[in-house]
């Protein structure tokens, strides 16, 4: 968490020391009475002001008089008191207090206060999130990300689910940027490494720890100290590696390979995967205790095929600062009909291809040509994420039959139901055509 400027208004020296200890790492100032507190608040510069309700004066709620001043200065005010009757609490909030807690459990209360403060501090930034950081007009996607942003400043682990190319890394970086953490955003794709290499990448190693270790190197866990560790494709991690990482997450310490001295790191974990975690749990490929540790709050990103209204805004976003392009009405229609199997990543590449071309006015013919180019480059063909999952569940033969039926059904519709035109357009014989029609009839 970023270093904050905090004023503690408390007349009890012991209480001041106790609260100050729980705010170690921040810039903390003290005021023992209302007069000195008022002077410090007038000078301004504080992020948070903890206010004792009873400052030892005749008025048992004298601290309340400081709340309006803190509010005018834009300072987050927190009332702390041994008395928390409904009337007093209501009065404090009516005066502009931001938070109120009863004294006695400072260790828990202070951490909660700081989390709520960080969430409020970044609230103004959220207003432009869906136009400037993660472009989407989809209400469900906006709601899921907005809910996660409420917990960006907490230690709660976050899990981002969605098909490849939907923006899981972008969401993780967005949450880190709103966390207020002073450390770095450190990402690693777990599926890109074997188990041994992944362990070395995560934990680091000492010189000579294994063949080829010519020098010591810090691991991702240490690099993410006071920051965010983003574990992409977490579902590909072996059970053995899950156990080792779980221990490091829980204990905040680990041993680099070849070292007998532990390292410590206060990293926050955000994980992502395109796999079905419940399926991995049932298959015994995911430890339940590891799943519990990484599964605090979940953000679900839908494929672009399910949020077509985002296609054109995304294109405008990726074209910012570059060459302006105009799409013919037929071209826009084709873009909106396309399923975008590569999701947001495919849209970005499409915009890059358009911008590199010579034409400023993009026709439907050009759109079709560029989409075909992207399909070849990505090896996508007509296979969507849904089709791939269907093949894994039902087998390739049934999946291929499903694709054939869909192609014939669409071409029949485009050709007014004329079977001869369908056979000519798709270059198939009548046996394949009638076999497909029979399957569709039975279905």
Features:
443 residues, alpha/beta, Rossmann fold, Helicase, Ruva Protein, domain 3, 4 domains, 5-stranded parallel sheet, 49% helix, elongated
Brief overview, please?
The chain has 443 residues and is α/β, with parallel strands linked by helices.
Topology overview:
Layout: E1 5-9, H1 13-22, E2 27-31, H2 34-43, E3 48-52, H3 67-72, E4 76-81, H4 86-94, E5 99-102, H5 106-121, H6 123-126, H7 129-132, H8 139-149, E6 158-161, H9 168-177, E7 185-189, H10 195-203, E8 204-205, E9 217-218, H11 220-223, E10 228-232, H12 239-251, E11 253-254, E12 263-264, E13 268-273, H13 277-282, H14 288-294, E14 297-300, H15 311-318, E15 326-327, H16 329-337, H17 343-356, E16 361-362, H18 364-378, H19 385-394, H20 396-414, H21 419-426, H22 430-442
Parallel strand pairs: 1-2, 1-3, 3-4, 4-5, 6-13, 6-14, 7-10, 10-13, 15-16
Antiparallel strand pairs: 8-9, 11-12
Helix pairs in contact: 15-17, 16-18, 19-20, 20-21, 20-22
């Amino acid at each position: 968490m970023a270093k904050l400027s905090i004023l503690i208004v408390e007349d009890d020296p012991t209480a001041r020391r106790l609260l100050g200890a729980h705010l170690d790492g921040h810039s903390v100032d003290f005021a023992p009475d209302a007069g000195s507190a008022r002077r410090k608040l007038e000078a301004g510069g504080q992020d948070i002001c903890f206010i004792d309700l009873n400052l030892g004066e005749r008025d048992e709620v004298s601290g309340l008089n400081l709340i309006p001043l803190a509010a005018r200065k834009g300072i987050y005010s927190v009332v702390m008191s041994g008395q928390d009757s409904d009337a007093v609490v209501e009065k404090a909030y009516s005066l502009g207090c931001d938070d109120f807690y009863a004294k006695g459990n400072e260790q828990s209360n202070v951490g909660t206060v700081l989390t709520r403060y960080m969430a409020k501090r970044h609230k103004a930034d959220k207003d432009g999130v869906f136009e400037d950081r993660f472009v989407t007009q989809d209400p469900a996607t906006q709601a899921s990300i907005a809910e996660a942003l409420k917990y960006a400043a907490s230690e709660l682990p976050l899990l981002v689910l969605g098909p490849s190319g939907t923006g899981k890394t972008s969401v993780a970086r967005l949450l880190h940027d709103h966390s207020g953490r002073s450390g770095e955003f450190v990402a690693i794709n777990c599926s890109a490494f074997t188990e041994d290499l992944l362990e070395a990448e995560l934990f680091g190693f000492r010189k000579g720890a294994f063949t080829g270790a010519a020098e010591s190197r810090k691991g991702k866990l240490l690099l993410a100290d006071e920051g965010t560790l983003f574990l992409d494709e977490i579902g590909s991690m072996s059970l053995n590696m899950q156990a080792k990482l779980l221990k490091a997450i829980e204990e905040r310490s680990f041993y680099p390979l070849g070292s007998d001295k532990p390292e410590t790191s206060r990293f926050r974990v955000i994980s992502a995967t395109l796999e079905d975690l419940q399926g991995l749990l049932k298959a015994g490929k995911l430890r339940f205790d590891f799943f519990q540790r990484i599964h605090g709050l979940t953000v679900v990103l839908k494929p672009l095929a399910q949020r077509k209204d985002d296609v054109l805004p995304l294109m405008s976003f990726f074209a910012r600062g570059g060459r302006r392009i105009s799409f013919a009405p037929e071209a826009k229609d084709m873009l909106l009909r396309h399923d975008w199997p590569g999701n947001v990543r495919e849209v970005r590449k499409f915009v890059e291809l358009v911008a590199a071309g010579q034409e400023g006015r993009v026709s439907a013919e050009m759109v079709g040509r560029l989409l075909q180019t992207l399909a070849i480059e990505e090896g996508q063909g007509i296979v969507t994420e849904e089709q791939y999952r269907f093949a894994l569940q039902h087998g390739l033969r049934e999946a291929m039959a499903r694709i054939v039926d869909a192609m014939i059904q669409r071409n029949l519709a485009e050709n007014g139901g004329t079977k001869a035109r369908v056979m000519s357009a798709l270059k198939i014989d009548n046996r394949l055509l009638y076999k497909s029609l029979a399957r569709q009839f039975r279905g």
